[in-house]
Specification:
Number of strands of chain B: 12
Oligomer: heterodimer
Strand content of chain B: 15-25%
Distance between the termini of chain B: 62 Å
Number of helices of chain A: 9
Strand order of the largest sheet of chain B: 5-4-3-2-12-9-8-7-6
Shape of chain B: globular
Distance between the termini of chain A: 46 Å
Shape of chain A: globular
Number of helices of chain B: 13
Strand content of chain A: under 5%
Order of helices and strands of chain B: HHHEHHEEEEHHHHHHEEEEEHHEE
Helix content of chain B: 25-40%
Number of strands of chain A: 0
Order of helices and strands of chain A: HHHHHHHHH
Structural class of chain A: mainly alpha
Helix content of chain A: 55-70%
Chain lengths: 186, 394
């Protein structure tokens, strides 16, 4: 019988299984050095609360992403600041090494225009709406998992996601995804 | 390309960190874990949900045909037909019946013999039986587990490969200077659960207020039970939160010698006053014993009571039947586009959209991950709990 999370090796297993993906998720939002701190803190927090969570029942991801979301909440302004800087300058502070000039390649230029519009759109979202949107889009959590992670009803997940996507679509020039599907880019 | 696809691509070149980058966090974590091993008296981890597998399959679909996830609320009628396990079936009592059953439970447990509180080092033997629906719990099906714990949780023991292994845990003596509720919040053991329940006022209003206070002290109800076997999802109401917390206390106490009878009765009486509490009679727990299910969320998360003694015997969770639907792999891009356009055409007409989604499922063009509402997801029961002289004794 596998031991509970009082065992160091069991908790190490949790870290080995989820830390890399969680780190990347946080890094995409706040950059990798903030991700180092937040992921480490999230697992410590998870360890402190482990007796409240039963690990055989559910996937641990909603629980871990919920803890991380809580910790990231304190960095919400930094996140918005970096998104705005990206929108304004075309240089993404989150990817410090990525300083490709928009003029280098034509294709890259137009792609960059969308990226910058998107950065502005994400910056303009309410923090709670952005959390839901990015958990669905980047962490591949289901509505129900997002609900469990953020401690909100599933209906609220739906309405926040709907609102966030509508704002993003408007900001991208009213692209209608249904219309776009008629010319699928495969 | 949908707006979600664009967002998925945004900063997609941010790399997954390598092991070296993660090593510092891992080392820090293990240092704390080893220094602060505390006893966690909850059903033991034996498995993980195969979510990685699901995610991978979904990614494969995304590559093959584009990705579409639609959340559907299914037509209720579909589930009512032959849904013996449905929490909405007629066997679920209305609130008045639930209140009456809980009041009976309260007066019955009051007559149970008063056991003195065990000494902290008293060994207790547990045998648990679990049923898990495939895809939710692995290994799926029925499994049993045995272990020994001390009442204060400072030691645990179990057999591995025929050999008895006894663990010391640093938990038992840590909670000095804390109130009983705070001590339970910090470290859930049979003893802290026993002491916490015993410390609660007996009047229902005052009891629920004290529980609400403990919940607030612990960072809100979602920290307390979301994702645990007590509740699959976060509570939607204050009453559900209080109910879940009481279930957590009762379940942990049941892993020791139960709660003091008068305090357990007070907990049942307080539960009876929580709006929306329902009961389901004529069910069985994972160990095969008859049980009554008590729930504050319409029957999806249930505390199981013995129908004669009204002692706590188990927990179970039923599927809500609500979840995402994913397009089946292998559809042509043209088919995906056609389906997407059709779904979008329903606009605000959710009922018609959901009917269409069900047709997709019936035609195997879409896959639903959630089974019908009322399907048993998880059931957990104590098959045996007894005080024993030493670890390894049954």
């Amino acid at each position: 019988m596998q031991r509970s999370l009082q065992d160091a090796e069991a908790f190490a297993g949790l870290y080995d299984r989820h830390a890399a993906a969680l780190h990347r998720y946080v890094a995409r939002r706040l950059g990798d050095s903030a991700a180092d701190d937040i992921v480490a803190e999230a697992f410590l927090d998870a360890f402190r609360r482990r007796h409240k969570y039963d690990f055989r029942v559910r996937d641990a991801r909603p629980w871990l992403y919920g803890i991380a979301a809580n910790l990231m909440g304190k960095h919400s302004r930094a996140e918005v600041r970096m998104l705005r800087a990206y929108a304004r300058t075309g240089r993404d502070p989150v990817r410090a090494g990525d300083a490709v000039s928009g003029a280098e390649i034509d294709g890259r230029l137009s792609a960059q225009a969308i990226q910058r519009d998107l950065a502005a759109a994400l910056a303009a979202l309410a923090a709670a709406d952005r959390d839901v949107l990015l958990m669905v889009a980047w962490a591949d959590l289901s509505y129900r998992e997002v609900a469990a992670a953020l401690h909100i009803p599933v209906g609220t997940v739906r309405s926040r996601l709907h609102r966030a996507r509508a704002k993003v679509r408007t900001a991208l020039g009213g692209y209608d995804p249904t219309a776009l599907r008629e010319e699928p880019v495969q | 390309v949908t707006d979600l696809d664009l967002i998925r691509d945004f900063r997609a070149d941010v790399p997954t960190p390598d092991d070296a980058r993660l090593a510092a966090g891992r080392a820090q974590l293990l240092t704390i874990v080893r220094a602060e091993r505390r006893f966690r008296h909850r059903p033991r981890s034996r498995s993980w949900r195969l979510a990685g597998l699901v995610a991978t399959a979904a990614a494969a679909v995304a590559i093959a045909v584009g990705f579409l996830v639609v959340s559907a609320t299914r037509p209720a009628a579909r589930h009512m037909a032959g849904a013996a396990a449905s929490p909405s079936a007629s066997s679920v009592s209305p609130a008045e019946t639930a209140a009456r059953i809980l009041m009976t439970a309260a007066s019955t447990v009051t007559r149970a013999p008063v056991k003195s509180e065990p000494v902290p080092g008293q060994w207790i033997y547990h045998k648990t039986v679990q049923y898990g629906r495939p895809g939710v719990v692995s290994p799926a099906g029925v499994s049993t587990g045995e272990e020994w714990v001390t009442f204060a949780g400072s030691r645990t023991a179990y057999y591995r490969g025929g050999q008895l292994i006894v663990h010391d845990t640093a938990g038992g003596a840590r909670a000095t200077g804390l109130s009983p509720m705070a001590a339970f919040n910090a470290n859930a053991t049979p003893k802290t659960a026993y002491d916490a329940i015993a410390s609660l006022p007996t009047a229902p209003d005052a009891l629920l207020a004290a529980v609400g206070h403990a919940i607030a002290q612990d960072g809100g109800i979602a920290n307390v039970t979301a994702g645990s076997p007590v509740s699959a999802v976060a509570p939607k109401t204050k009453g559900q939160g209080e109910f879940n917390y009481l279930v957590l206390l009762l379940w942990n106490a049941a892993g020791g010698v139960g709660a003091p009878p008068a305090a357990q009765a007070a907990a049942y009486r307080a539960m009876a006053t929580i709006p929306g509490v329902t009961t389901q009679q004529g069910i069985t727990d994972a160990a095969g014993a008859k049980a009554i299910g008590v729930s504050a969320d319409g029957g999806y998360d249930q505390l199981l009571l013995d129908p004669v003694t009204y002692q706590v015997t188990g927990l179970r969770q039923l599927s809500t039947g609500i979840g995402p639907i994913t397009l089946a792999p292998g559809l042509s891009p043209a088919a995906v586009n056609q389906i997407s356009a059709k779904i979008a055409s329903f606009r605000g007409n959710i009922a018609a959209r959901d009917k269409y989604l069900q047709e997709l499922v019936a035609k195997h063009q879409a896959i639903e991950r959630e089974p019908p509402r009322g399907t048993l997801d998880l059931s957990l029961a104590y098959a045996a709990v007894m005080e024993v002289a030493n670890p390894g004794a049954r």
